[in-house]
Amino acid sequence: MAELRAYLWPLAWALLFHAVALVLFSANWSSPPALRQSSTTEPMRAELLTLVAPAPKPAPKPKAKPRPAPKAKSKPKAQKKAAPAPLAEAPVPARPEKAAPERNAPPMVPEPEKPSLQELLGTDFEDALAAEAGAASEGEARPEALGSYEADLMARIVSQWSRPPSARNGMSCDLRLALVPTGELVSVTLVRSSGNAAFDRSAELAVRRAAPFQVPEDPAVFDAYFRSVTVTFSPNDLRY
Amino acid sequence: MVLAFSGRHPLSLLLLWIALALAASARGELAIEITQGVDAPVPVAVVPFAWQGRGRPPEDLGKIIRFDLARSGQFAMTAPEDMLSLPSRPEELYVRDWRVQGIAYVLLGSVRPTESGLEARYALFDVFAERLLFEETLEARAGQLRALAHRISDRAYEQLTGIPGAFSTRLLYVVAQNIATEAETFRLEMADADGANAQTLLKSREPILSASWSPDGQTVVYVSFETGKPAIYLQEIATGRREKLTDFEGLNGSPVFSPDGMELALVLSAGGNPDIFVLNLETRKLRQLTRHFAIDTEPSWTADGEAVIFTSNRGGGPQIYKMNVRSRAIERLTFVGDYNARARVLADGRYLIFVHRQDGIFHIATQDLERGTVQILTETSLDESPSVAPNGSMAIYATRSNGRGILAVVSIDGRVKYRLPSTEGDVREPAWSPFL
Amino acid sequence: MRHDRPRRRPVSEINVVPYIDVMLVLLVIFMATAPLLMQGVEVALPAADNAPLKKAEESDPLVVTIDAQGQLWLNLGMPAAGEGRGRGATRVSLGNLADQATKILNTRPTIPVFVRGDAAVTYGAVIEVMSVLQKAGVRGVGLVTEPPELGSAGGR
Fold this sequence. Notes:
Oligomer: heterotrimer
Radius of gyration of chain A: 28 Å
Helix content of chain C: 25-40%
Largest interface: A-C, 51 and 57 residues
Shape of chain A: elongated
């Protein structure tokens, strides 16, 4: 009995420390808010960016497609949360991932986009026309790839367009945009006015705020389709 | 081949150019159609106006304009504390200071005292297009600084939205104090569209009702019980001169000027039950429009003066009807709900705004007269007496808050709502003036 | 009972082992958490093949330039006439930068912010600028470099 009693305290301490060690181990150390608060400055994300693209057509740029973009964005975030320690690593894997789908799969990504664009254009005729053109010559996978750029351009403008209260369904104006291969907007010209200056100006503002745009890398495609773009503004979702 | 030729003949160069141009056009540039938008408020900055006089300015014009434009709900206003620079002339404006904050338009200017009063020089700048939309000078008499600010707001609003601003307009309303006591008083008041500069037009111990404006904004008509029974009065705002128009037996109510200002639609019950009458203000001749055993009340005119809209319970419950003044043809307008009253037609003739009861609660609602769709604009209860701003963008109405009558404003699309500051007492029966 | 005493002593000495055990565990824990305690600026440093400047994301970024003398320039206001690094920018003090950045972030929280530091600028100067930007509410900055073949060897 006395022997056992002699062991009792050391045993209790050992058990206690093991328990503490276990608790410390199993505690969630991945997000230590307390530690962060104690530090004076929080870590900040910084990225190195090259001012001038080395070549006019590097693949990584056209993450225009709305779909790959959010994917790429969410990944670094998730990594950051899970393991804040390897700081330098986080953005690095994100980039190849971002670039990868575009580099090896330009025909794959745009394909799901195509129907939506055709819906937006609302013409089977153009669909057929595009298909025909694609069949006609070998380099004509382009008009399909164009779809995503076109959809992006539309989405950007729509998200910036605030119609003035004087706008009515059925009003319509045409703007001609002059773009450069970097996607920047060089000029906007009012080709056809709606007759309502505020409406015209709202359209122009939408375009200018939406710029710069994603444009195809291929200079030939860019010259053919994106050098000059005509945008018609004709709302159909207003009250009247 | 072609290149070899081009070296020798300028003409072949031209041909080559034409061929290239044709090839380009054959491939076709993009044509895109945008049919939707988001209609978010447009970011606008109103820079505090520079004061070019001695001492301190009486009030910052920029602040009044900022509040005006913010109330319209069309714009997201930038606080002056967040402005990177405070230019007062277009030459001092650096576009990138504003672009970097995403601000689309900048209104800036300065005020200086002149011999006769004040002179404001102001400009509206389109930041993204990097161009001056307009620059002009406005003068005002001393002490008219607020009016000056409202006029600038009007100009900027019209430029940016395509519809004239209604910031320089006025409101007419009745304030009742100490109701149901010995000291009960009623005041007919007139104030700026933002509720400032209130002045009393008439004070009475007996109720004042149904005030409304003449189309030129110089005269008001109202019902006063000052003689113990209802009578309709006409009052010139500037001179205060009053004239009693009608005090027939029974009801004399709801006087409304016709759009040409020549006639007055009103309700009389001399024949036993209330009917709509029209009083010619030149000849003082009265003619009866409706002749029905039901109650016909709350008349108002369509913008063209061709027809009168009124509330009648001839179909059982109160509904809105329209009668052509010449042909006397009657048409029922509202069919949604069992209570629709106190209607006004918007200037474009497309929408009707009225009091609508839904689930026992009174709201302000609009009805698209072409499609028949009804949209409830307000969430408050006991809303009454809608009156539309002359530019058709907003409507003012009376409602209750904490057991007190107050005035509130809602945009015609229902997106923007705000309350007007009220001093004391029960505020009711607002009427928005025409353009002044 | 009395005979038991001498036997007990060695037994109690053995109990040091759990302490060592615990110490090791604590050591491991501190090793694991040490990187988390490190405070500072998170920097992504891809050596040579940087991502080209993200195009078409958002226009009108705020660009803070730090020249070789450690002076700060912003792409705002009236541009200073042609002077090396500060070309097209206006000079600001650090306090000024904090003020301007706060104002901009208040109205446009999503604005992209770039820092263009001269190669000769000390690391501390860049960190100073970045911490000022952070206090103003900037979430992340882009460190602008030049492509390797154009600038002096290696990313800056």
